[in-house]
UniProtKB/TrEMBL annotation:
GO molecular function, one term: phosphoribosylanthranilate isomerase activity
Encoding gene (name): trpF
Pfam families (alphabetical): PRAI
Entry keyword set: Amino-acid biosynthesis, Aromatic amino acid biosynthesis, Isomerase, Tryptophan biosynthesis
CDD domains, A to Z: PRAI
The EC number(s) this enzyme carries: 5.3.1.24
Record organism: Haliovirga abyssi
Family, per entry: Belongs to the TrpF family.
Reaction equation(s) it catalyzes: N-(5-phospho-beta-D-ribosyl)anthranilate = 1-(2-carboxyphenylamino)-1-deoxy-D-ribulose 5-phosphate
Name of the molecule in the record: N-(5'-phosphoribosyl)anthranilate isomerase
Matches recorded under SUPFAM superfamilies: Ribulose-phoshate binding barrel
Length: 206
């Protein structure tokens, strides 16, 4: 399994444990209060206490005050900060002084790739654009855009990934990583054990 796998929108310890038992590389915790997958930092702290070493802990933020991000990142010892809003190049560079940062870009069409050039980053996440939500829509975007995006860096693919399309996504696009959320849920923020097991088996067998 060469592709890196992150399960995002974790809100329960039992979901984190199932994901880890089945081979994920990273867990994502959403600190955007308007998200239905929002989790309070104190609850994340309790989950992290029970996570074994070598599992990356990712904090997902949307247009958050930069000082609040730094504080949460340090308190929880987050390994990666994932920025899912309209954060500027300067904002990202400031956070990179103390953290590994992944910038997410919500894709409407191929013109969105022009934004990536400005950030000059080694890796980035591509997700489906929605006017209603910052990620976690369960919808795919045009994957042909991913092929073009790879010339700017390593692509982490998100948006509508599930057990029915994950093999095609990995085989066809060969992304650096995949970010899965709604595709393994019963409800927003509540993961389905069987769906996690099924999608991880497909990925590992790929």
């Amino acid at each position: 399994m060469n592709v890196k796998v992150k399960i995002c929108g974790i809100t329960r310890l039992e979901d984190a444990q199932v994901a880890i038992e089945n081979g994920v590389d990273a867990l994502g915790f959403i600190f955007y209060k308007k998200s239905k997958r929002y989790i309070e930092p104190n609850k994340v702290k309790e989950i992290i206490k029970n996570i074994p070493p070598f599992i990356s802990k990712v904090g997902v933020f949307v247009n958050e005050d930069i000082n609040d991000i730094k504080r949460i990142g340090k308190e929880l010892k987050l390994d990666i900060l994932q920025l899912h809003g309209e954060e500027s190049v300067e904002y990202l560079k400031e956070l990179e002084k103390g953290f590994t940062v992944v910038k997410a870009f919500r894709i409407k069409d191929i013109r969105e790739l022009e934004k990536i050039k400005d950030y000059k980053i080694k890796w980035f996440l591509l997700d489906t654009y929605s006017s209603k939500e910052y990620g976690g829509t369960g919808e795919k975007f045009n994957w042909e855009i991913v092929k073009e995006a790879k010339k700017y860096g390593k692509v982490i693919l998100a948006g509508g990934l599930n057990s029915e399309n994950i093999k095609l996504a990995i085989d066809e696009l060969k992304p650096y990583g995949v970010d899965i959320s709604s595709g393994v849920e019963i409800d927003k923020g509540i993961k389905d054990r069987k769906k996690i097991i099924d999608i991880m088996r497909i990925i590992k067998d790929d």
